[in-house]
Every structure is written in structure tokens, then in C-alpha cells.
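Purpose: get a first structural picture of the assembly so the mutagenesis plan has something to point at.
Setup: two entries, given in the order below. No constraints added.
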Amino acid sequence: MATIFDIGVSAGFNVLTAIAFLLAFAFLRLQPINDRVYFPKWYLRGMRDSPISSGAAVNKFVNLDARSYLKFLNWMPAALKMPQDELINHAGLDSVVYLRIYLTGLKIFVPITVLAFLVLVPVNWTNDTLERMNVVHADIDKLSISNVPNGSKRFIAHLAMAYAITFWTCYVLMREYEIIAKLRLRFLASEKRRPDQFTVLVRNIPPDPDESTSELVEHFFLVNHPDHYLRHQVVYNANKLSDFVEKKKKMQNWLDYYRLKYERNVSQRPTTKTGFLGCFGSTVDAIDYYKSEIEKIGKEEAEERKKVMKDPKSVVPSAFVSFRSRWGAAVCAQTQQTSNPTVWLTEWAPEPRDVYWNNLSIPFVSLTVRRLIVAVAFFFLNFFYIIPITLVQSLANLEGIEKALPFLKPLIELPFIKSFIQGFLPGIVLKIFLIVLPSILMFMSKFEGLISQSSLERRSAAKYYIFLFFNVFLGSVVAGSALEQLKIYLHTSANDIPRIIGDSIPMKATFFITYVMVDGWAGVAGEILRPVALVIFHLKNFFLVKTEKDREEAMDPGSICFNINEPRIQLYFLLGLVYAAVTPFLLPFILVFFGFAYVVYRHQIINVYNQQYESAGQFWPSVHGRVITALIISQLLLLGLMSTNDFAQSTPVLLVLPVLTFWFYKYCKHRYEPAFVRNPLQEAMRKDTLERAREPNFDLKAYLANAYLHPVFKGGEHEDDRYSVLDDEAWMGEEVIVPTKRQSRRTTPAQSRQDGGGSDTVSVPETLHEHRPI
Amino acid sequence: MATIFDIGVSAGFNVLTAIAFLLAFAFLRLQPINDRVYFPKWYLRGMRDSPISSGAAVNKFVNLDARSYLKFLNWMPAALKMPQDELINHAGLDSVVYLRIYLTGLKIFVPITVLAFLVLVPVNWTNDTLERMNVVHADIDKLSISNVPNGSKRFIAHLAMAYAITFWTCYVLMREYEIIAKLRLRFLASEKRRPDQFTVLVRNIPPDPDESTSELVEHFFLVNHPDHYLRHQVVYNANKLSDFVEKKKKMQNWLDYYRLKYERNVSQRPTTKTGFLGCFGSTVDAIDYYKSEIEKIGKEEAEERKKVMKDPKSVVPSAFVSFRSRWGAAVCAQTQQTSNPTVWLTEWAPEPRDVYWNNLSIPFVSLTVRRLIVAVAFFFLNFFYIIPITLVQSLANLEGIEKALPFLKPLIELPFIKSFIQGFLPGIVLKIFLIVLPSILMFMSKFEGLISQSSLERRSAAKYYIFLFFNVFLGSVVAGSALEQLKIYLHTSANDIPRIIGDSIPMKATFFITYVMVDGWAGVAGEILRPVALVIFHLKNFFLVKTEKDREEAMDPGSICFNINEPRIQLYFLLGLVYAAVTPFLLPFILVFFGFAYVVYRHQIINVYNQQYESAGQFWPSVHGRVITALIISQLLLLGLMSTNDFAQSTPVLLVLPVLTFWFYKYCKHRYEPAFVRNPLQEAMRKDTLERAREPNFDLKAYLANAYLHPVFKGGEHEDDRYSVLDDEAWMGEEVIVPTKRQSRRTTPAQSRQDGGGSDTVSVPETLHEHRPI
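Result (C-alpha cells, whole complex):
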């Protein structure tokens, strides 16, 4: 039970931390040497040059202009100045839609805060329940619902407030959904020609004894989409090859490092050890060693590359099929191809840079099994993660360390270090787990078999939100690990669960206020400072960078990290909605978070982040869905809270809200979600028609030629020669004869019975093709 | 606690009832006068003539051949004889798939029964728990799980049995799904040309200020499906008109009735009263009165017909759009047309006879609101229906009747009648409710806005199943109305609900055995007798029938009534799966039901029922889903039962089953359901190609001309003259110029901003159409 003074101290401390971060940022960003850490986006867009290449020597590294330090907050208005349309051009729609999450937070919570302070604070304050009850309480508890006597008629104000919150939130959400759907459609409509507009990803191509995958794809689409099929690109299983490429690159880095070292100190040739991490094994000359290693790997790589290109087994049963028009691609992506729904699965191809290549070859049955495994694994991770953590914590105590590493004993026995270890080690184990958690969730999503980076991030975000909800929100409210909660949920009636949770909601307000300040305020300020990126850049700069190109590569602009950041924002939505009718005092803290984070992320998006893909805001439906979830949870918890306050008459009145909210969710899903999933034919046709009128002679086939080649094949020297042969044929002509290898079957009258339609596909129409012009 | 003797008596009684029904049926069906009641299907197929038109006078009505009475069961082998393929031709795929539900029941439960009797009965029987506990128990309880002592290792047998049941059921279900999917695909592939193969239903056509709905549809599809669009049929709001037609028909019936009466007794002209039900009002000459009434309605009808055809307001914003090829229709049905997903909604057109015309004009927002209303209403119906029933029951007591109808008092006061009313009236009120319940559910589904009879029946079946599950199954087990159950569910923990229900499962075995015999055995035998249809046919035959055509109309073959019968079968699946591991003694009774019902319904389908539509087994996914639901429920209840028997170690072992079963459900949904929902392009293309090769000059446009006209317009005399104009244009030619009324906008450079794409549709490509040949 913190007093307002306690909160004030905590707030002061966090504000000071945030200001310290901001000052450090203001100082560091003005140093030219950090320019690539704080403005990489502009370098990537080619609109900024290295300051090192021009000007005086000192000015290259340190900013000596004293005046520029005075205005340490002047990045803020600059960040807000760029208009939305320009920002879409600059950073893509994903970033803009991501920023709108913060804006939505502001739009929802500013009026709610005002209303809550006008209505609920006086209603709560003018009671004396807490004083009469003589419970230990803080001033801020007088502002909360706990101060209203049980069964009081004043609860009607809270009920009305719950209705106001629900309707206002739904209204804002709907408006936002509408705006973003329009933004997305306008963005898609105004986009230039892009390979993915014409391309469909076909998965689970059935094996065929007579034809190669490539021939099969060609025949299938020539028969079933005769007027629209243009070309296709088979997918190679180049996972091993890209491992080689990766390894070679790492070796090259080491070679560069040792060369640089040698240059700086010519007297001594650097040495390294051949074993693990360069720590064990025999000592060798480093430069020679890495040179020979690179040569070896280079050979292996070339061999693997040859093998992949020649061996039909390295072609996975997936292909990128391109069409003559967007209309044809839209049709193919949205329809089912054969009567067996597990083969010839078509979907929109992701952008080439968005494709997650490793998952393209997973067959259908395996996919469903993987989904089951991940679901079960995630359930255990969510509810039982505390068990291994406790285990590790119990092992990672002083005695354990002393036994494992006895030479550390004298050091550990020092009283200061001893208490430090005992106090922090368990916390650090947990912290490490929480830091690697997003990577674990991302690994799970990858294992599930999703085929684009964007969908991987969306799926991971959903998992992370569930984890945060149970382990951070409910874990703090019910004060127990998710495992203990699970027991409560199983052993408590459906009626009592919201009551138990709702009852402890008001008491946790101060905890969450502190949480918002530490995680929200200071955390966001830390984001703008980018300490990790700063350190890594300078390390790389010192050890590896020789040329301008190296410096370019050392730069790590990062990205929004939707899978980590969005679920965290959702936690603030949840806190705001839950506490709006209970302890309105929490709302201003959340408002500050949304406002501050909006400015910071806008700045980062303009100056730093470089998105790896563009999904045109495809994640909005899940953002929307999670805010709705938070709203429904807040309604249920208020219901529980009211029923403990002897105001059970409210139950039917409040029960209407979740029903209406759920209906609203369904309505929005039907109304807006298709715009984020499917591609309308009208739009496709309009674009096709306009384009055909503008550029009637555009060579689409050449344009699409290498768009969906695996990245390791790109670079020119290893062109796929089989496709150059195919290119020579007169594809664009109308009179296409389907070549087939099934000569022997022409005399067989019965159709082949093979399932999956692979052979049936061609065997019927091939005769027709011979007898009549299409 | 019934003994085996009690059950034997009950079984004997029910078997006797069933045999009595069968004997009555055997006798009645042999009478030529009943021929149209028991063999209408053959009349409808034109393969049987009225026996009345030939032979001796007596033979027309009564069968005098004594030998034919001896073989009173000889319809059974006859019913089983017809092979499946012939049955598909005779009665359609829906009927065959419906029969497979019973077959599936047999396939699931025959091996389970054998296994249960081999394994569980000895395990249960060789204990003496019940005897030692000195509880009152029956012999059959010794066969049930109650006889195994708490915590006994013998429960392992039950666990193993649960696993065996799960895997066997899933295996049978998957096989069945596969078979039925194949049947469906083969059926669709072998079907003759049908209008719905080429037609798509378009709903929510946005209003347009410049063009009529018909013109708008034409433009939209000429622009967006230029190579495939053929013609369209707008939908008229003819609900009022069909009311008139209906009324006229009823009047005609009365006229016929009085004419017949007059013919039989020429001395006296029949009279009627003009008021309500012919009971009140002034007396008039009946024949003249109805003649004039018919004339009046005929005039009104003609006027309404004219109005509907001329008034653009009577055109609802829906249309049936036909394409040149199945491929074109398949594409249009599966894709989204515009960026606004609430307009231009396309889906496969139902068969013309399957269309539910009244719902075609409901707009999108209204649909979602209606769905909410129905969901809430159904929730209340399901859990609170007992309240109005109790209310009516309390009103419909003796005093109430005496007050309302005082002249009945002396009659009611008779002791016999008094006790009869007091004993039966409350039961009758409930029974009446249960009889009208399917109609209420059907009304709800209609209100929801579904657009085909088949989907209406499927939706009603889902609702009915939920009702039966809560009010019959759980109502009998937990022994309380659904309302009381709701309280239990809300106030009991998630852990305890299966425990409470599971605990009382074994005790209810005898009750459900009786239920199976009464509802299953006797009920099915009653179905074959068709008493209601028999009575109504003879009443109509006596009062209305003059000509052979009248007799044809008096015949009511009925149909399967999927919405009523399927949920009832599902109850037997549920009972069988729940009791398989608990009281295997129940299983033989269920087996008898499935076997007997299979024969009876096969007979009825061959000889009686006339399906109103053909959905090609589209209902199977929901049948499959409900059996899976029953399986999961049975697993959860066994889990609860085990935990009360001190065998809690079993919980994790049993918890695996629902997870696996649910995963199996998801797998099947992905694997097989698309075959029941979407239409693969490959199949469409293959059929198109074959057909084009066989009949290159077929006039598809003429074939489709009136396929989707509202039934009241059919009959020739009231042909839609606007369409004959359209027909004259040279549609089949390739060079289509899109006519438009938007002359004024051609000079406007900016696109119109109107939402929904209505005007955008044409305004961009119209200029293109003028400048270049497509």
C-alpha cells in the first residue's frame, strides 16, 4: 500500500532515469562517430554520407558545436514533423500502422482519463470506507473503487463508466480499423509493379513418376489456368548451401580481423588455435589458417551448388507460379485447385525478401503434427516454465558454483561478492530466460512451418501476448506462477475466477504504476539510446572495418521487432482498460507511456529502423483482436469485483457488455478482415487494365525471371541454366502445345487412378490439346 | 436401480410395440388404397400407376391375397437389396450419405461391443464391491464400473478400453469421411449439366444512382470477369405475390371441397360463414362465395405481378450470375470481388429448388445483428425454456380451465377426467413444446438469413443437437433442468464439473436403456407406419380429390427431415461412447437401434421420401464434428468418473485423449472439409473441356434462361419480357461493348469517390473499352 509520496519518489526516480537516457542520447547522437548508430535509415536510403569522409579530423569523431547540446530535446518536434504520407514512402506502411497502435492508445485513453477523473475520482474520493474500516491504506486508495462502501448506489457510476469505456473503445477501434483498411488498400493500389502481385506460391506438389516437378507444375497450370499462366520458379532445398555461405562469411570476418591486426602490428604475425572458439587445439598462423579454410569451404560450396542445381531430389515440392495478370494470380491464390485439398495448395506469394525459405518443403501431414506439438509445447512453456527455472536457480547457488569451478572459491567467498551472487543470481536466471523467451517463441513458430517472416512475427507475437497475460498480468494480480494459477482455475468455479481476480485488482494498482514507469517510461527511453547497437557497432568498427562497405555492413539498423514490442504495448491496453473503472489514478501513467513511446518510435522509424519486409499492415487484425480481448477481460474482472462488493444486481447489466463486445469483434472480423487477407478481383483487374493501356509492350516474363530465386543463387555467376532454355520458347504466343512425357499412356483408354490428380491432370486434356486449337 | 428382469419386461413391452407397428405396417402397405402413402417415391418417379385405375372394384381398395400377409417382414430384405449406386440414382446422394450415419454407428459400435463384453464385463463382474457395500443394487450394476473397488488396478482395463474406443472411432470416422468425400466428388463429376454448376449467387449489390441493379450487375461482371460472364437473373421480392398465390390455392381447395359436397348431395347448396375459420359472420352460399373470392385474389395477384415486374424497387440487391464455363463460376464463387468485403458477396448458387427466396434481400449489417439476436435467443431458449413451460403448466390447471371455459365445468368435475387432466396436462404442455421445438429452431435459422433449404436444415440440426445434449442427456444425468445445470456450471470448478457428471453416469444406465428402447426401437417402428401421413392422405382423398392430379397432390411423401432426425441419432452416438467404458450392457441396445433404423430408413428412402433438394452430402462435416464432440465428452466424463474412484493417476493418461481427438478433428477439417465447401478448379476445367469437345454448339444461354426465376413466375404466361430483349443481343460474340448511362462523367477526369466500387467499376475501364478491343 504505497502512499502518493512513495509513488512520487518512484516516479521521480524513473523520470530521472529516462532523462538521463535522453541526455545521453542527445549527447551521443550529435557525435559524428555515432552517426551510423542513430541515423542508419538515411544511409540505407542513400541520403546521408559518412561524416568521416569530409571535414576536419576532430570533427569527424566529436561534435564541438556547443550550441547543439543546448537543445537536447529538439529531436522530438523533428520526429513529429514528417507527415504520414511521406512516412509511408520513407519507411513503409507497416511502420506507420505500427505507430498507429500508440495513437490508438492515446485516442482510447485520453477521453477515458478525462471522464474518469471528472466522474469516478469525486465519486470514490467522497467516501470514508477505508478510514472507517481502519485498514492500512494509502491516499491513492481513496481514489480507487475500494473506498466506496459495499452495496452503495454509487457503483452505478462505475457501471455507467464501464459502458462508456466499452462503447468508446469499440468506436475508436472501428474507426481505426476503417482507416487502416483504407490505408492498406490505397497503399496496395498505388504500389508499383511488384513480383508478388503476379505470383502465387504452390505447395505440396504431388510427386509424379514420369515428370519432374518443374514439368508437372508447367503442365498443371497450362491446363487449369490456360489463359493466365506465365512462368514458374521451382524451389531448391538450399539450406545446406546457405549454411556453407554463412560459414564462409564468418571465416572471412575472422580473416579480415587478423589481417587488420597484422597491419597494425607488422612485427608479429597473429596466431590462433584450431579448436573450439580458438581456445584449444594447436597454434597456427591465423591468416594462413583462415585463408585455407575459406578456400576449403569455397570448394565445398561450389560442389553443393552444383549438386543442388543438378540433383532433382534437391527440388522441393513447392514452386512460385507467376501469371500474366494480377487477376490471374488473384484467382489462383484464392481458389482450390484439385479435389484433394492437401495437394497443389496455393496462396499469395510473400514478397521475395519476406519468404522464409527453410519451411517451403514441409508436407501437409507433417504441418498438422507440428502444429499439435507446438501447441502442447507452448502450453507447457506457459504454465510450467517455472519448474526448470527453479531447478536452474537451485543449482546456480554458491555451493554449486564452488563445486563446478573450485578455483573461483576465494573470489566468491568475499562477503560483498557473496551477497551479490546470492541476491542476484536467481533473478538473473529468470531475466535471462525472459530475454531469450521471444527467440524460443520464434523458434516454435518456425517449427510450425510458416513460410514468411511476417507471419512468423505475427504468430510469435500472439504467443508472447498469451505468455505476458498469464505470467505478468495475472501472475502479478493473483500473485502466483502460472502453474499455481492453473490449479486455481481448475479448482475454482467459473463464477469465482473473475471474483478472485477482480477482488485483488484494486490492491495491485500501485504495483502496476511502478511497472508502467520502469518498463514503459525508462524502457522506452532506453530504446532510443540503443546501447547494445552502439557497443556492437563500435566493436565491429574497431576490429573489422577497413572499407566503407565494411562499415555499411557493421551498421545494424534493427527493425520494429513486432513480435516483442506489440505484445508489450498490449499489456498497457490491458492495464488501462482494467483499471479505468477501478483505479483511474493509473491512467495518466499509461497516457504518458503512449505519448512518449509514440514520439520515440516515430523518431526511430524515421532515423533508425530498416524493416525487413513490407506486409502492408497485415498485422492489424491481430492487434485489434487483442485489444478486444483486453476489453472483454476488463469487463469480466469488473463483474467479479462488483459481485464481491455486494452489488450483485449489476451482474446482468454487466453481462451484456462482453456479449456485445464479442459480437462487435465478429462484426469487424467479417467487415474488415478480408481486406487484410484476400485480394479483390476488381482492384487487380483495374490495375491490370491501366497498366496494359500504359505499357502494352512490357516484358513481364523477363521482369519476373529471377524474382523468386533462393537468395544464395542470386549474384549473377550461378544462373540457373535450365531456365534460360525455357525462356527461349515462345511462351507469350497463344498457341501453346503442352509437351508431355507420357507417350506410353496415349494408347491406354482408361484414366490412371493415381490419387492427387498429378497424372490425371494432363492425361485428359492432352488428347484434346492435340485435336483442337485452344 | 432396475434389475435385469425389469429391463427384460421393459424390453419385451417395447419389442411388442415395435412388432405391433410392424404388423400394422405389413397389413396396411398391402392395401392398394394405401399405396400412395407407402410407395409415393415410385409414383413420383413415374414407375408406378394408381391401382385404382385397373382391376376389379374390391381389389382397388383391399388386398385379398392371403399369402401376401404371411411374409410380413419381407420388405426388409427388399430394402437391403438395392445396391448403393442404384440408390444414389434413385434417391440422390444426400439420402445415401444419411444412411451411412447409421452404418457408421454400426461400424463403430459392433467391434466396441464385442471388445467391451470380452474385456470389461469379466473385469467388472468378478468384483464384489456392491455386495460388500450393502447398497441396493441390481444385477446389471454388477456389470458396470461401479462394481470395481475404488483405487483398484483393474481400472487400467477401462483406461485401455478408452484408448481403444478413441482410436477405433477416429479410424472409422476417417475412413467414412474419406469414402463420403470420394462419393461426393464422383457424384459431382458424374452429374449431368445443371444450372447451379454455372451460376453464382451475388448478394449485397450496392445501390447505384445511375443504373438499375440489372445493368449494374451486367457492367460489373463484364468488366471484372470479361471472358467468363454469360448472363444474369435479378431476384424479385415476390414474397407478397407468393402469399397471394398461396391464398388463392387455399381458396381453390375450399371451392373444390364444396363443389364435391354439392355433387354428392345436389339437393342442398352448401353454405359457409364469412368470418374467422368459417365459424362466425353471415351465412353465404359457399360455392359462389369462394368463386368470387378467388376472382378477387386473382385480380390482386395479377396487379401485384405486374407491379413486381415493373417497379425497380421490387428488385432486391441480389442476382444469380451465370458464366460461360464451370471454371468461370468456380473462380467467381471463391474469390472476393471488391475491396469492400460487404458488397458484391459471391457464393455458389444453391440448386434452384433449394433456394430460400425470402432471405435473399437481407443486407450485411442486418445479417450480423440477426446472428447476435438468434444466438442470444437460442441461449435463453436452451437454458430458460423451462420457465415459460412451468408458467403455462401452472395456468393450464383445472381451476384455470374452469375459469376460462366455465361451460366445461360439469365435464371436468367427473373424477376420471379430473385425474386425467391433472396427471397429463403438464406433460402434454411439455410434449407440445418438444414437438414444435424443431419448428422454432427452424424459424430461428430462417431469421438468421441463410439462403438455402439445405443450410437451414443443417443449422437447425446443430441447434437441436445442443438442445438435446443439455436438456435430454445432461438433464437426465445431472437430473435437473438446463437452468439448474447452468447454476451448477457457474458455481462449480472446471475440475469438478466432469467429476459431478461422471459420477452419476453409471447410475443412469438403466434409464437410458429404457430411453433407447422407447425412443429408438418403438419410435423407428412408428416411423415406418407413417400414421400422420396415412390419416391426412385419406382425409384429403375423401374431401378434396376429384382427379388423378388432385390425388397426386394429396400425396405427401415427406423427406428425411435431417434437422430433426440427425441430432437424435447423435444422441445415440453420445450414449454409446459415454457408456462403452462404463456400462457396456447398454451397447447391444444401441446396436439394435442402429441396425433396425438403418433397415427402416433404407426402406423409407427407397419407397417413400422425396428429398426437396440435393446437397451432395454437404452435411457430413457437421455429422463428423458432432460424433467427435461426443467422443471428447465421453473422455472428459470418464476422466471425472475415474477421479472419483480414487484412481487419479489416470488423469494425465486420459487427458492425452481429448487433446489427440481435438487434433484429429482439426486434421480432418483441413484434409476433407474443403471437398464439401469449395469446388476445385481442376474438376471444373476437366468437365468444361470434355463437354466442349462433346457438344461444341450447345446453347448454354438458352439452357440457363429461366433456371433461377422465382417459382411464382414460372409457368409460361408471365415471362419476364425485359429479358427477352436482352436475349436478342449478340452476347456470345467476343466484341462486347459495355453500354453505360454515365455519359456526363466521361469529361470528368477525377474518379468518382463513391464507396463500394459501384461506379468506379465501370468508369475506369469504360474508356478503355472504347479505345481498344479486348
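The mean pLDDT of chain A is 79.
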